[in-house]
Amino acid sequence: MAASKPVEAAVVAAAAPGSGSGVGGGGATAGPGTGGLPRWQLALAVGAPLLLGAGAMYLWSRQRRRREAGGGGDAGGLKRNSERKTPEGRASPALGSGHPEGPGAHLEMNSLDRAQAAKNKGNKYFKAGKYEQAIQCYTEAISLCPTEKNVDLSTFYQNRAAAFEQLQKWKEVAQDCTKAVELNPKYVKALFRRAKAHEKLDNKKECLEDVTAVCILEGFQNQQSMLLADKVLKLLGKEKAKEKYKNREPLMPSPQFIKSYFSSFTDDIISQPMLKGEKSDEDKDKEGEALEVKENSGYLKAKQYMEEENYDKIISECSKEIDAQGKYMAEALLLRATFYLLIGNANAAKPDLDKVISLKDANVKLRANALIKRGSMYMQQQQPLLSTQDFNMAADIDPQNADVYHHRGQLKILLDQVEEAVADFDECIRLRPESALAQAQKCFALYRQAYTGNNSSQIQAAMKGFEEVIKKFPKCAEGYALYAQALTDQQQFGKADEMYDKCIDLEPDNATTYVHKGLLQLQWKQDLDRGLELISKAIEIDNKCDFAYETMGTIEVQRGNMEKAIDMFNKAINLAKSEMEMAHLYSLCDAAHAQTEVAKKYGLKPPTL
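Structure for Mitochondrial import receptor subunit TOM70, as requested:
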């Protein structure tokens, strides 16, 4: 089963969600019914079921409706849809602010009453847009308020922070919100306002910690705080990934990954076995007969290393052919570019791909393959227009190339252009009727369209299509894998488990299948031990499977094992094949770290598995 394709689509043979797989692939797309939840939430929102569908692991939230960004509310929580601009009267009653008793009660009540009166006057100025006067009144309220009246005093600081916010005095906002939180540690409004101030001050780490606390206190129900968390996590992830990726050591993927990648092409000259006439005189056939001696060629030597799975030497041998401007220069450029992509060096791959594409006299199959790979690279870099242009150009110059339609169909899935995707899969099938993967992916595209549209009759038709595909192609692991994902969506867990077993029987060394099966155990039987056992097996099979480490990290977050989760995310980061995927993994890691800090500071922990 192909663990990765040039365009990482949800339809690709159970390609790892968020695995970075797909040498040119984009981020894993959410499956039907995801509600568009950001994947970082997996490292924060716990206690919700994990689902596997459309090639992505996500939180299931059928009843969650899309809301306009909003916020606001009282000291204990924010209203869900609209940010409250006006100051508040009372803080959360959680800490209590009962009437004092004893000899000094009358005097103390007078002080508190005067403080409340100053605050009320400040509120009037605030509503009138007179923020400087409001600040003066809130300052008076703070000075008058008895020090033991924590909740009232926290409200006054928070109100003054709101006025400072209107004047865009972010340092003062953060300082007053800090005072409010010190007095009332679970004061959501103050925490969120401080998070926004930290954002303006470019204090991303502090912003993340505050908004994480807010998300936990709100039970991940307020979209405004969720959006801020998503925003700051992405910014942190991009910053860290940019630096890390620039200085990373190239890392060759596992042999299984590389073979899976090349298996996704049928019209790729460079991945075809060497002909006898191409082999060197040192090679022998099975009978010991010497083969025809060929010229000294770096490209042919690289091809020989491919057959031997000695992948680390391929780039250098291709470079020899290119430097000598040898007979196979175009092939060497394409092969070198492909391995640059495999080790995650898109910057080095692009000039080689550009040159192959520009060689008008080169074999059209080489040029079309280079366009597919460059188009996939553009999709990974979130440049869909350039990606589409390359795929269309490939179809123009080599209209009989089934690979073009197969991989463009995956691109269309990522772009939610399902009808066009189905048309491309149909053309691939017409050109290559034995293409089991294209037929399985077509079924999945139709299923996804039906599921998203909640069309039960079309869903059943798509499921029947899967049955026909696996009956016609019983040795196609991809067909079973995609069918298993659709069955999981339909909560037919037992049958989905059987399909994953079929995948394992056909490809026992495919690590991603074990991860998917492990996730299924969590959803189906809540069998954490079995799920972790299967994911550990995936790592045993392929210790470079970033998908397995990411998934393990996510599960450890849900178990409350933050240190182990962070360790797993860091291992996945070191294996990421693109800067974009690395940024996503940093987001997960930062989310887990923020949750650890919030637990230390405020004792806030979501429910664990």
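The beta strands are 50-53, 56-59, 73-74, 77-78.
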